[in-house]
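Second opinion, please. Pick holes in both lines of this record:
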Amino acid sequence: MTTTDGSLLSTEMNNEEALYEQLLLQAAKEMQNQLPMAQESKQIRPQPGFCVKTKTKTNEKVFINICKSDQIPPPPDLSEEGLVSLLESDDPSGYRIPMSLGEPHAEIDNSGNGCTAYDIVINSKFYNKIQNNKLFMEFFLTIGFEGLENKYNLELSREWRMLKNRKFLGSVTEQNIRTKSKPVIQELESSTSSPGTCTEPLVSEIASTCVEPEYTIVAEPADEYPSFLVAEISLPKVESAGSLLLDLGEDRIVLWARPDLYHLDIYIPFNIVQEKSGSQFNRKTRVLTITMPVQPA
């Protein structure tokens, strides 16, 4: 059962909790001076594919440029029959499509009116697949729309049409994609294990046999826009940090505990500073603590 700490919803925090969070945040800052974040990124110049037109719930026109690049990893191979089975399952979110969501850019449509365009970049081979399969096309666009909505706080209509004579609205710009950005998990209460950098969880892994662990998220300070978020995730079946795979997005925590023990994939209500975030796993309490600086409002 998932629990959300009342500090995100309430301004009340007693003195003992406040002192604990201050000590924890200070420890995390000291840890960051000793354990650098593995941060690698590169710029890609995607190739135009096709453009779809939709609108927001307030009837503003939106254009979405679907682009392709060999630099984006492909999703796991899946047949149409497999996709149908997945969509009929209890958890279709287990299948993930790697994509890069570009920043919004103001453009002018064919009528001379202002509009907003977004770029989504996917793997070139997967692009060819959706071009030849209507079901995969619909599935991908649903995922892409949801990604833009979550990242930019949009509400997009699911009614769309593909532009016939235009592959791209605006001009193609380079995108900076993160190739490696993983917080080092420091392991406590262990004399034999040393800290290790988490690796990217395989997108082909399905969380059907995993359970979502209990967690709490605390904001600091609690009575105003926070400077830090502290997540505590209870992992009673995990013995060491070596079995944990942690990925922090701008507004997302993804955690895997192998072999098929736990899977957590949650959005958080603030954008965090990924390269300054840190994490510790306490072998005695079996709790993973993630300290995440929040980007200024």
